[in-house]
Amino acid sequence: MNLYILENKIKNLLKKNLDKKTYIQISNKLKFFIVKDEELGDYSTNLIFLLDKYAPNKKNEILEKIKKILKNEFDRFEIVNNYLNFYISNYALLKTFRDFAKKGPNFFKKNYGRNQKVNIDYVSANPTGPLTLGNARGAVLGDALANVLKLCGFKVTKEYYVNDRGGQIEKLGKTALAYLNQIPWEDDLYKGQYIKEIAFKFKKAERFKNNPEKFGKKIADYILRFFIKPTLKKFKTFHDIYLFESQLYKGDLKNKVLNILKKHHLLEQKEGALFLLLTKLGEHKDEVLIKQNGEATYFLSDIIHYFYKFLIKKTKIDILIVASDHLDHTRRLKSALKIFKIKEYQFQPIVYQFLHIKKRSEILRMSKRRGVFITLDELMQEIHPDIIRFFFLQKSPEVIIEFNLELAKQQSEDNPYWYVQYSYARLKNILKKSKIKDFKKFDPQKIFVEIEKSKEFLSLIKSIYKFQDLIYIVHKDKKVHLLTEFLIETAKKIHSVYEKEKILPSPPKVAFIYHLSNFISFILSLINISAVEKM
Questions:
Q1: Domains (ranges, CATH) in the chain?
Q2: In terms of CB atoms within 10 Å, which of 1, 71, 141, 176 comes out highest?
Q3: Are the beta carbons of 26 and 14 closer than 8 angstroms?
Q4: What gap in Å lies between CA 165 and CA 155, rounded to an integer?
């Protein structure tokens, strides 16, 4: 059982024992929690508050029925400050450990997704320069979420959407031409030595003087091929598809979308441009779809993009991971997509805050356009990609990250990445010293009988038990930062066991350590981090 099943079991019991009105009142406000302090229980619910308020005459009866249907899973039920607390039984822990020992990581596979098609659009940096640290934050969020959703039974596609047309590509072309002295320099062009170096790789650039967008497309293709893709590979981020914005304009998609908008009376010509009347949908202003010069805007491209994904590719859910400067854009886009009967839950933007580098007491703020930024490649020359990944996943997306460069470089227990890796290395060291070759021959039940005498060992089995809850929460709320939080908490337990318990020469205890090491390496793999066996 996990938190999800516990919640459903109690809701079903309430439904059978309460009238419809009372059940709705309670179920709408019913909450379940994982208790951090295991001395106070493992799970908790506010059910007692709600029963006292809406069905006091039914409280004792319902409590007795809860205890009866959950007696195998929980051996203690306590009411503390009107919260009902549940304590996991040793029988449930034995069952969990036995199943995990038999199945390994497959134990955590769930079917929440029922093979629904989910597309995750992430990184998708404009091909105007190397990847920055902000792009890297999107990469670690997308990679971890994709891994968890696959584990939860979703059919996941990882997409990189390439903006390879329009104003920014024209500006990129102009920048390169200006560096080659083919056209005059303009103040708003891109800064950065990399563009100058790339421009000089193209001979006969003068033929693009009158078509800077075409030259910009060539520069963008070069940046994607030789800057962005190699960096992503080194960072262990791999996309299933690269979808180019220019491809969306090759067929009849644009006209199809515009015709639908026209039928809904949402298009209007104003000041020589074509507008989408978003004010009719509750937004504060209308949106330009086609400029005065006839060029389609990025907003129109995005509408076509999602029309293609939802109505042609039949994607069930699309998760767009973007930086906070896209917050307003994603909100307006969500309004526009309702025109095509795309439901609220189908388009799920995750907006993350920017990232700052903290070097001693100085905070470095970056801008690609001004040419002031640290590339992901430059950071990976100083710090291993796995350490960057761990640090970038420690905060929820809405929190600004101040990446402490000095701390990230330290190989000490103060560095949370090494604190976790050190716990794993300690487990591997025990296994090496034991000289046991075949751990599969040990009966999980006999292992459990040996270790259930220890509160520390039981707490580690609870971690395996509750990781099922974490998978459910991460997939439901998209809170992938909870994975690093969980790793740090589990590492604390491992260090405690290592220092307090005599493990060698007991074969059953060593066999448990073997399964525990597999558990830690599996969680690390979910965030694309390799486990370090030796420190």
A1: 3-88 (3.30.1360.70), 93-112+412-526 (1.10.730.10)
A2: 176
A3: yes
A4: 30
Each residue of 259-318: pLDDT tens digit?
Answer: 999 999 999 999 999 999 999 999 999 999 999 999 999 999 999 999 999 999 999 999
CB atoms within 10 A of CB 67: 13
| Contact yes or no for 520/423 (Cβ under 8 A) | yes
Residues 140 and 403 sit within 8 Å (Cβ to Cβ): no
Residue 481: how many other CB atoms lie within 10 Å: 20
The token duo for 77 is 């039920």
Distance CA 108, CA 86 (A): 22
Q: What is the DSSP letter of 251?
A: S
The residues, any chain, with a CB within 8 Å of residue 214's CB and separated by 6 or more, are: 173, 208
Helix axes 167-179, 212-223, angle to 10 degrees: 90
Q: What is the mean pLDDT of residues 119-134?
A: 95
How many angstroms separate the CA atoms of 370 and 474, rounded?
A: 37
Token pair 């259930």 in the structure block, residue: 452
Q: What is the DSSP letter of 278?
A: G
Distances (CA, A) of 18 to 13, 48, 56, 57, 113: 9, 14, 11, 11, 31
| Strand ranges of the sheet holding 287-290, from the earlier edge strand across to the other edge | 267-270, 273-276, 287-290
**Biggest CA pair distance of the chain:** 87
Of the candidate ranges 217-221, 222-226, 323-327, 355-359, the one whose mean pLDDT is the lowest: 355-359
Give the dihedral sign, CA 55/57/59/62: negative
> Which strands sit side by side in the sheet containing 32-34, from one edge to the other?
32-34, 43-45, 83-88, 74-80
Q: How big is the CA angle at 296 (ends 291 and 297), to the nearest 5 degrees?
A: 80
Q: Point out which residues pair with 83 in neighbouring strands.
A: 80
State the residue for tokens 């639908």. Answer: 260
The predicted pLDDT at position 373 comes to 54
- pLDDT(429) > 60: yes
490 vs 301: CA distance, rounded Å: 45
372: confidence class by pLDDT, cuts 50, 70, 90: very low
In sequence order, the β-bridge partners of residue 157 are 119
HEC string for 473-496: HHHHHCCCHHHHHHHHHHHHHHHH
Distance in angstroms (rounded) separating the CA atoms of residues 254 and 322? 24
Report d(CA 245, CA 299) in Å as an integer. 12
Q: How far does CA 525 lie from the centroid of its chain?
A: 14
The answer to whether the Cα torsion of 309, 313, 317, 322 is positive or negative is: negative
Using CA atoms, how far apart are residues 183 and 394, in angstroms rounded to an integer?
46
pTM: 0.93
Q: How far apart are CA 443 and CA 448, in angstroms?
A: 9
Sign of CA dihedral 151, 153, 154, 156: positive
401 strand-pairing partners: 355
